[in-house]
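User: Can you help me understand a structure? I only have the sequence.
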Amino acid sequence: MKSWEKERNSVGSYKEEIKELEGMSSAVVKEDQEVDMSRAINKLEAVSGINVSKQSTVTTETNVFFLEKSMRIYFSGKESQIVDFLWKLGESDSLVRVSEMRVRPDKNRYKLEGWMELTASYQKNVIAPVVTVTPSAQAKVDS
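Assistant: Let's start by predicting it. Here is the structure, written out as tokens:
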């Protein structure tokens, strides 16, 4: 009974913690999710040096808490470039991960080529931040 009462009294702090976690930087408004995902992939592509020859359109799946956006990229590059891309993807703060990957040697056997299914999970029902505009800021925008 004491254990139950202790947990019952903690409900308020749990709700506050949930609100805090929901407001962390992983929240991206729905309109910006695909752009956010593409930007993260393009940045890693440029830094690692792999060549992305084709990107598929973004597909969306949903569950109770998250929207999962997926995109397939077709790539080629040296082994070290592909490993660098994967390493940087894992250590970055983006929400993108590799959900499936196929790799094979190219025709000349100098590079590797293949495709990756990249998936990003975004919070469902994100509320866009409210931006207030002061009259002086509005005047600067108008001029």
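Now, to help you interpret it: The chain has a mean pLDDT of 80. The two ends are 67 Å apart (CA to CA). Let me know which part you'd like to focus on.
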